[in-house]
């Protein structure tokens, strides 16, 4: 049996999600590595690794959602570890920001997902661990090994315990179909439905076309992320208008921009379940929002990578049900 302790892996955290990093370290039974990540008086980021990493396998936990300081901290931390002769630098990005512009939908638009992937690669990262990337193909934007973990089984496991009768798992847009199918496979006797969404502006969507039947059913909406809540709330209202019995929602990433927590609280959704891929440390979320931790999932992935074991097996086991 390979011994993880002997690998002398070191885990570091930026400031974007220290509570999650602490939970991952705890799962691995390791202390968080000592790294100063602060600011110079002029506001520039100041990083200094405070322990020896020469020849070690290292991992940095840092989601890259706004502000861009989070991304910049990550890049500088990678540079610090590289120049300190770390053997490998695994970049753990529980939520990969700047992902929604992953292709040109209108002329003269950037492709930020590729740009950010390039910057991270060039900074010196050896590999990436991400969770539910906005689009699966973003994995290929990195020219280094990249594992795209999914929290869908964790979220499905939560809803499974509720023993709903024949629930309908609804994808709020076509891009969410693959993930909601993975979710649905875990829920016995569930069926699926798909919304055809049209985005009118960054905080306005139109979801009035639904493929599938929700009449009299419990609906579980599944998405990768909730930003303004526009998508999920509009889909929830539409399924209720079509006669659904009740509606729940879940997403891996609860970004909860601007007034979205209130928007969700005042919506017909009974409960919104997300993960701790972004930090809620200084926020009070409404009672309707439930947060599950992805620390065991990421911790297990780090362990398996370090021991040269399969990551896909993590998900295969549950698929066999
Ligand atoms: C979009 O394609 C994504 O999958 C989500 O549906 C979207 O990011 C949610 O954003 P919002 O909450 O602002 O509607």
Short characterization:
By secondary structure, the chain is α/β, with parallel strands linked by helices. The chain has helices at residues 18-27, 69-83, 112-123, 152-160, 177-186, 230-241, 260-265, 295-306, 313-319, and strands spanning 10-13, 35-39, 45-49, 57-61, 88-93, 127-131, 146-149, 168-171, 191-201, 204-211, 218-226, 246-254, 272-275, 289-292.
Describe this structure in words.
The chain has 321 residues and is α/β, with parallel strands linked by helices. The model has no long low-confidence stretch (mean pLDDT 95). The chain is built from 9 helices and 14 strands. The strands form 3 sheets. The chain has a 7-stranded mixed β-sheet with strand order 10-9-8-11-12-13-14, with helices on both faces. It has a 5-stranded parallel β-sheet with strand order 1-4-5-6-7, sandwiched between helices. Strands 2-3 form a two-stranded antiparallel sheet. Strand 8 (168-171), helix 5 and strand 9 form a beta-alpha-beta unit. It starts with 9 loop residues before the first strand and ends with a helix. It has helices at 18-27, 69-83, 112-123, 152-160, 177-186, 230-241, 260-265, 295-306, 313-319, and strands at residues 10-13, 35-39, 45-49, 57-61, 88-93, 127-131, 146-149, 168-171, 191-201, 204-211, 218-226, 246-254, 272-275, 289-292. Helix 1 crosses helix 8 and helix 4 packs across helix 5 (177-186). It is globular and about 60 Å long. Bound molecules: ribose-5-phosphate. Ribose-5-phosphate binds at residues 100, 172-173, 175-176, 205, 223-231. The site of ribose-5-phosphate has 15 residues, from strand 11 and helix 6.
């Amino acid at each position: 049996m390979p011994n993880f302790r002997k690998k002398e892996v070191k885990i570091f955290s930026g400031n974007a999600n220290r509570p999650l990093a602490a939970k991952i370290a705890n799962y691995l039974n390791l202390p968080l590595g000592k790294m100063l990540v602060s600011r110079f008086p002029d506001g520039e980021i100041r990083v200094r690794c405070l322990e020896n990493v020469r020849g070690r396998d290292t991992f940095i936990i840092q989601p890259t959602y706004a502000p861009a300081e989070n991304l910049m901290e990550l890049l500088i931390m990678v540079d610090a570890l590289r120049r300190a002769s770390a053997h490998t630098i695994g970049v753990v990005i529980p939520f990969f920001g700047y992902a929604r512009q992953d292709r040109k939908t209108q002329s003269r638009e950037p492709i930020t997902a590729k740009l950010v992937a390039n910057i991270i690669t060039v900074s010196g990262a050896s590999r990436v661990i991400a969770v539910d990337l906005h689009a699966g193909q973003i994995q290929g934007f990195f020219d280094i090994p990249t594992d795209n973990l999914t929290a869908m089984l964790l979220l499905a496991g939560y809803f499974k315990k509720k023993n709903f009768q024949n629930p309908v798992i609804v994808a709020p847009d076509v891009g969410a179909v693959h993930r909601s199918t993975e979710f649905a496979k875990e829920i016995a006797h569930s069926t699926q439905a798909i919304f055809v969404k049209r985005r009118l502006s960054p905080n306005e969507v139109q979801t009035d076309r639904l493929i599938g039947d929700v009449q009299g059913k419990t609906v579980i909406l599944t998405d990768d992320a909730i930003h303004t809540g526009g998508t999920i709330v509009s889909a929830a209202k539409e399924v209720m208008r079509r006669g659904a019995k009740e509606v729940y929602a879940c997403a891996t990433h609860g970004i909860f921009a601007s007034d979205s927590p209130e928007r969700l609280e005042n919506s017909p959704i009974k409960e919104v379940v997300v993960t701790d891929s972004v930090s809620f440390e200084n926020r009070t979320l409404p009672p309707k929002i439930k947060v599950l931790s992805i620390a065991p999932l990421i911790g297990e992935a780090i362990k398996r990578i370090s021991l040269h074991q399969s990551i896909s097996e993590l998900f295969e086991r549950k698929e066999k049900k």
